[in-house]
Amino acid sequence: MQRYAINILLCAAALILVGLAHAGKLDGYVLHVITLIGINCIFALSLNLVNGYMGEFSCGHAGFMCVGALTGALLSVALFTDSTLFGTAIFASHWAPFLFPLVLIGAMITAALAGLIVALPSFKTRDDYLAIITIAANLIIISIFNNIDAIGGPRGFLGQQQTINAMSNFIKLPWMLIWTLIGVFICVIVIRRLMTSTYGKGVSAVCQNEVAAEMMGVNTNRVKIMAFMVSSGLAGLAGVLYAHHIDYVNPKSFDLLKSTEGLVMVYLGGMGSITGVLMAAVAFTLLVESLRFIIPMLNNGLHSIGLLPESYHLDQKWAWVFIPLMLILLMRFRPEGFLGNRELTHVFPRLKRWITLK
Amino acid sequence: MEFSLQNSIVNFLQQCANGLEIGSFYALIALGYSLVYGVLRLINFAHGDVFMVGAYLGFFISTALLAPEGMSGLSPIATLILAIPLTMIFTSLLGVSLERVAYRPLMRKGAHRLYVVITALMCGLILQNGNVALLGASHSAFPELVPVVVYDVWGVNINNVMLFIVITAVLVFLALHFIVSRTRMGMAMRAVSWDKFALPLMGIPLNKVIVFTFVLGSAVAGLGGFLHGMSYPVLEQDMGASIGWKAFIAAVVGGIGEVRGAFVGAFLLAFVETMVNAFLPSTYSDLFAFSILLLILWHRPTGIFGRPLTAKI
User: Fold this and answer.
1) SS3 sequence, A188-240?
2) Least Cα separation, residue B247 to chain A (angstroms)
3) What percent of chain B shows pLDDT beyond 70?
4) Residue A142: its chain B contacts at CB < 8 A?
5) How far is B21 from chain A (nearest CA, A)?
6) CA-CA to B98 of 20 to 30 Å: which in A289, B88, B154, B206?
7) B129–A317: do the CB atoms touch at under 8 Å?
8) ipTM higher than 0.85?
């Protein structure tokens, strides 16, 4: 029983969270931030598979999130709602809570297929050249969606809110929080089990030395296709959850800045560390959100001690000056991120007594 | 039929001329990317924003020198002659301070290469958003330093600013090529990329070479920013990101680390873009340009001029 303590604790925490949200004890904003943290966790973990474990430098990961978000939103509208785009719903709306996983799986599969844009060139291309291919892939994906006018193009797409409403009509629950928690759970399990399997060791082998791995009998091309597809599929999961959580998708919101956020979370946590990346995703999201409150406070403070001229006000534009600045300082003093490539159980070996990882 | 054929040829040549101009901007940025990469194996993502800062510095310096409100300023031509070197000096100071403050401490610690890249990305974000925060999102208009004269060559419109830009880009390329391949400093730069650890043992000052590289790259980017301001007077803060990313892609397609590659890649990208723009709706330009570049990289994984690295196991 002791060995399962942390597992049970985490499950209990998730249940309590859902319970609190269901009872309406959580502020809407707090709920929003918690869901966002979950989505960022999935996004960062999926990027970690390629950038951390496989050692490639993919800096266009938000493109796959975009694919997941848009196909997910379209699927959800097509399956559960009557719309001008797809006509009548395929399933009656009371099926929504049970068949919503179809939307998630569909989005994941499409995003994984989009991952082939990067996976196939990666056979011959490495390092910085592959980085360029990922950037190009991100820009290509955004450009494709911007040019499809039927799904809104640059104006964005909405309508998936009705699916959430259909789920809420069936049973009143904080559905998006639940799906996000399930998503994080699945994501951690998939990556953990993949990376500890014999097949997944091939990913680490490719990271260490590709030529040597090939000589030892690792089919590097297959490993790369697998890693890129799993990674972009999970990014697609983050995307579809994001699309339903924000209930508006615009290809523009998945540009290179979003990819950069993903990179920041991975390198902040430490390459190739699940717990590190989870910690970084939580810390980064909280940092971004807390600046909404810190900047006005800072503004008032600086005005009251007279450091800032009366005519000038610090506003939210400074948020994206402070965030990179803090990250640069963090990198300066701890360049390997929170945990390096170790897990929390390696840093604190005693934790192993309390947790069981399968 | 005859007439429309002639028309389309003129149209094609006009697009070529536009492509040459845009390619010059890409080339001026891509050269800096390539120089720094060739020496340090570092993708200096802040470089596009150095270009943006160059445009803004050029704007401030030239408006200050022109001194419009009743005061006696310099003549536009004198301003141009003074402002360009000043802009280049300031941007090279910026580049060197980025290297000194952000990259060098990390590299000295022996941090992973990618952490330095992330730091560079963050520096770029700081430059871009710092500019937005300080100046607001207002669009500043670059003063007209040279009156635009339009020449009509067989129906193709070319103006003097365009010519000036293209000629400058070619001259800068030739100068950089000369520096890298013929001078002692250039030899030292190539030596750094060859073996960073043996270099100090041979009595070559490593840090001096690195600083020199950053000075060259950032000065050229500043020049590019200034020229961009002359040609497209409306300045925007995200131009470092939009043009910078494309210039980086151009540098890689040419074969990053190669001065020639950056130059060829920049013009290639610019031509593809303007041609797509000419014959398809402009929203498709990114799609086609990047798809073609992706195919090129797929076919030649180390770019047009890049040589594959041989790895020992």
Assistant:
1) HHHHHHHHHCHHHHHHHHHHHCHHHHHHCCCCHHHHHHHHHHHHHHHHHHHHH
2) 11
3) 94
4) 286
5) 23
6) A289
7) yes
8) no
A260–B121 CB contact, under 8 Å: yes
Residue A282 CA to residue A37 CA, distance in Å, equals 6
The beta-carbon neighbor of B287 closest among A135, A144, A267 is A144
In chain B, how many domains are there?
A: 1
Residues B225-232, mean pLDDT to the nearest whole number: 90
CA A60 distance to own-chain centroid: 13
pLDDT for the residue numbered B298: 81
For residue B157, list its beta bridge partners.
B152
Quote the minimal CA–CA distance from B125 to chain A in Å: 7
CA nearest A315 in B: which residue?
B133
Q: Which residue of A has its CA nearest to B108?
A: A332
Q: What is the pLDDT of residue B71?
A: 64
CATH of the domain at A97: 1.10.3470
Highest mean pLDDT among A298-302, B13-17, B63-67, B168-172: B168-172
The answer to whether B212 and B189 are in contact (CB under 8 A) is yes
Report chain B's terminal Cα–Cα distance, integer Å: 63
Q: Is B130 on the interface with A (CB under 8 A)?
A: yes
Distance of CA A43 to the CA centre of its chain: 2
More confident of the two residues B144 and A228: A228
Across the A/B interface, how many CB contacts are shorter than 8 Å?
A: 132
Residue B4 lies in a domain: no
Q: Domain of residue A230: give its range.
A: 10-274
Residue B12 forms part of a structural domain = no
Does residue A73 form part of some domain?
yes
Question: Who wins on pLDDT, B153 or A68?
Answer: A68
Touching check for B245 and chain A: CB below 8 Å?
A: yes
Number of folded domains that form chain A: 1
Cβ-proximal residues to A30 (8 Å cutoff; 6+ apart), any chain: none
Angle between helix B76-98 and B47-66 (nearest 10): 150
Q: CB-based contact (8 Å) between A300 and chain B? A: no
Query: Considering the domain boundaries, does residue A340 fall inside one?
Result: no
pLDDT, tens only, B22-41? 999 999 999 998 998 888 88
Is the pLDDT at B1 greater than 50? The verdict is no
Other C-beta atoms closer than 10 Å to the C-beta of A52 total 27
User: Is B164 within a domain?
Assistant: yes
Output the average pLDDT for chain B.
85
Pick from A50, A129, A210 the residue to mutate for testing the B interface (most B CBs within 10 Å): A129
Summarize the confidence of residues A93-120 as an average pLDDT: 89
Please tell me which of the candidates A132, A325, A335 has its beta carbon nearest to residue B115: A335
Q: Do B114 and B214 contact (CB within 8 A), yes or no?
A: no
Is residue B40, in this structure, part of any structural domain at all?
Answer: yes
A354 touches chain B (CB under 8 A): no
Hey, what are B128's tokens? 């871009």
Are the CB atoms for A355 and A192 separated by under 8 Å?
no
Residue B151, domain CATH? 1.10.3470
Domain range holding B175? Answer: 20-299
How many angstroms away from the CA of B106 is the closest CA of chain A? 6
